[in-house]
Amino acid sequence: MIELRQKEIYRFLGYQKITPSPEVDERIKECVEKMQNAAAPRCFYRSFQVKQTAPDITEIAGLSIKSKNLYKNLEGCDHAYMFAATVGIGIDMLIKRSELTSLMEASIYQAAGAEMVESFADSEVKKIRETENASGYTLRPRFSPGYGDLPLALQSDFAKILDMQKWCGITLTETLLMVPSKSITAFIGCAKSSDLPESEYLAKTINPLELSSCTLCSKAKDCLYKNSSKGEQTKCEKTY
Amino acid sequence: MRKNILDRLGKEWIFFDGGTGSILQEKGLQPGELPETWNLLHPEEIIDLHLGYLNAGSHIFNTNTFGANRLKFQDNLDEIVTAAVKLAKEARKRSGREDDAYIALDIGPTGKLLKPMGDLSFDDAVDIFAEVVRIGAREDADLVLIETMNDSYEAKAAVLAAKENCDLPVFITCVFDASGKMLTGGTPESAVAMLEGLGVDALGTNCSLGPEQMIPIVERLVKAAHVPVLVNPNAGLPKSVDGRTVYDVDPEAFAGFMKTIAGLGAVGLGGCCGTTPAHIKKEIEAVTSLPFRAPKAEAHTVISSFSQVVEIGGGARPVIIGERINPTGKKRFKQALVEHDIDYIVDQGLQQEDAGAHVLDVNVGTPEIDEAELLDEVLTRLQSVLALPLQIDTSDPVAMERALRHYNGKALINSVNGKEEVMHSVFPLVKKYGGVIVGLALDEGGIPDTADGRIAIAKKIYDTAASYGIPKEDVVIDGLCMTISSDPRSALVTLETIRRIRDELGGSSILGVSNISFGLPARELVNSYFFAMALQNGLSCAIINPNNQAMMQAYRSFCALTAQDENFQNFIGAYQNYKTPDKRVSEAVDACRSRVLNALGISAGDLKSSGSPLGGNASFVTSNGGISGNSGGSGAGQNGAFGSSGTVTGGASGASSQGGSGNGQGYHSKLMEAIERGMAKPAAAATKDALLTRSALDIINQDLVPALDIVGKGFEKGTLFLPQLLMAADAAKAAFTVVKESMSDTQQESKGKVILATVKGDIHDIGKNIVKVLLENYGYDVIDLGKDVPPETIVETAIQQDVKLVGLSALMTTTVVNMEETIKQLHKKKPDCKIAVGGAVMTQDYADKIGADCYGSDAMATVRYADELCEKGLL
User: Fold this and answer.
1) Are residues B170 and B284 in the same domain?
2) Domain co-membership, B268 together with B199
3) Which fold has domain A6-196?
4) What's the complex ipTM?
5) Given CB atoms, is B148 within the 8 Å cutoff of chain A?
6) Is the pTM of this model over 0.95?
7) Do B721 and A18 touch (CB under 8 A)?
8) Is the Cβ of B861 closer than 8 Å to some Cβ of chain A?
């Protein structure tokens, strides 16, 4: 069972400060139950050495990646994980079916599915963190292809290097979308503990996934999902 | 001289090789480097890899072609595969095992997920595999081994490609997780049903799990399979240690588990990721110490979907086949077929699943349409949203073949009969694609009027099927139901026939039950009693309307009475709140009475109970039967959305009994209330009520659209949120379905045609679907082109159907380029067509930049834009 945070589901559904009605809560509950049965969470990761020898260039797993944001994210890390997680195609099937019968349910599945894969990835990262902490490392926040200036084209490299199809059942479309749709790939940097603690680090990097507020985001004005309570940590599915 | 592998497999222990990728990594294969390139770059290492396994004693070893397909090797596929087979031959020669080692052309998944979830079409998948098979066969591989398949549909594509492009034996192993599921939901049983139907020579499981975790899966495979079972586990689960992938089961332990697995009845054994020649050597030592034992196959009749099996006859619970997807005698259904309203058809399927059907009959045969095309489309849609096995019902062999080819499972096929010509056109299809075929007990001489005659035809059908290699268990005989109104003895003949199919022929039977009462009144009485009698006489499958209460009552009672409903779970589940018909009637009368009283402003206590129900006054059933404000509505007004409009009192009902023609400020019907509160069932019920006194159009214009408007405005103002808008849209859709049903005779008025599409490359389309439902609710005729739609298709449709508004959705920055391209082409070739765009990445600036006419900032924006165009007369 993957624990889902109700508040995050509300946010993905487009509720901002308002608490939904009991009817909506009931619908969410029913949907989440079905999702728990349909979910087939899988995760795979490998760790690789990281080298940063030229400005904005990060070398990892035989790749040489030019990205300011990734460079900053992995600065000071001697190794990093390439990470992939999914909650499986069953969630997409639920979405597909409900699109025919109820848009409301389809959006609940969308919203709760987004939260489900986040939550599952968090729980897997927690395991990695424990191992790394034990050997004196702290983790950097997950950083995914498509964030900031990190090219989406890296998805193909993740697919090959992690053999994602085989170990997680994650495939890519021609346009590099992941199927199942509720999937995550990311780099997770590991730095010696003398470095900034993880929470401090968040404030120093422009990471759209784990911004400390939405104020830095160029789309915050119109964003359906923005976190209205400023200063509170939030997660964003998107990147602008 | 090597014996054919098929003369050995199943008669002695046959050993496969072990891991390839994991060994090549040890030899220096870099992360992300494609192993197949080593056939050209490091041929000696590949020979060495094979030699390791040949020297360990493997009989069957795999060419290094797991990922070799044109998606990964556009330029040199032939070279890669040819080299792989040559290296395998060289290794076999060097090992001196020419006489007893076999080269398997190894085929892994394409790496893509098939449509509808992914973006690779089934036919393309077959092509991709076929190319590899042809090269491998040309180079003289000894067999085809399809492995590591984690999607049944892709597995089917690969097997078809192999069977159609070579004469080699075809083996296949699939991947199941610890819960016994493939990635896309398949089970050992569903996989076996489909793959055996396709004619594989051996099947089994590989990869994913270690040998110990595989044991329960092997047990299920052996129980279900009729062909030899193969098992190639990993050396445990992979772990990442210092950047290397390691496995935790050593050769000794591995061999121990494999001995257990051999004892369960698996006859082909090897290894997968992480296993080495040492693992295989130990495995061979351990297993060969066991006496060889060929498992005995049980005969059973099974059909399957991608994830479920349904067993027929042989002591299994009788099977309910839903008959509603069939245009015969259904005006609304025919209309849906002609209008290409696939959603309506699929919804019929979902309803029958909810009602308790185990299998759905799919028949779309009607004049005016291309049956092959439509059957294919309906079947593909159905299997993308529901997991019930399907019965493909057509008399057109072309339509049948196409449907069988694209069906994701082992279908029930309806039908053949005893006519030679029909049998010779249908049986080859059954043999090729697999399936359980329904054989009607009639032939050139017509329908025999005795059971003797029908049994004789049944025998002829079995025999002819056998001559095509189709076993008796894949044939189900239809004993034929003819109405008793034309021959009073016909039911008796039918009952005798099905009893004798069971008792004399040892076969399974099927009936289209409701034919029995044709021409009589109160048909459900005759049907349900006959149904129970038929079940008692051994009927295995019944084609009925599962939405009919009487039929399902007969079925569930029968199962409860014959110990076929464990703990009465189904019976109690369906009828724990059962009310007798008398009680239902009296409750309905009471409800009606209190509504009337309420509407008249009289409290029930003021009247003494009266025997004569109030009736005859049309205003009692107007759409405004009297809702008492917010009293019962915990949800209404919750978010401040409905506060101003939520109050309905009995007093208002007088005004609205005119049919709401005034639509003044005070007008607020029960239907409107239901829509605003997002209650689909009450909305449908209120619509039915309203239709008694008002025209469909009136309801749409006075209630449906205004109610949606109230919610839509609330959404736009930000006083209520997307979920409420969606719930309201759901409720309006339910109401609209009822209205549409009532209008199936009349030409429907449309405000205009709108094309919606998610652009090429994008496969997630919920945003587009929300807009679609809203537009439909507002009276627009939506042409939904789906997702991943090429610009050309959109332009062609717009021109052909003269559409003036196109809505495009894109989710990713990477696909906005396709949106731009579509807009460019539309502007050029259909200049009077306006374009609205929306989607997660879209902004007003972006929309302007790519030349869109409207930026749909939220779900309502496109509707507003369409209304605007409509007012100006531009649609």
Assistant:
1) yes
2) yes
3) NADH Oxidase (3.40.109)
4) 0.84
5) yes
6) no
7) yes
8) no
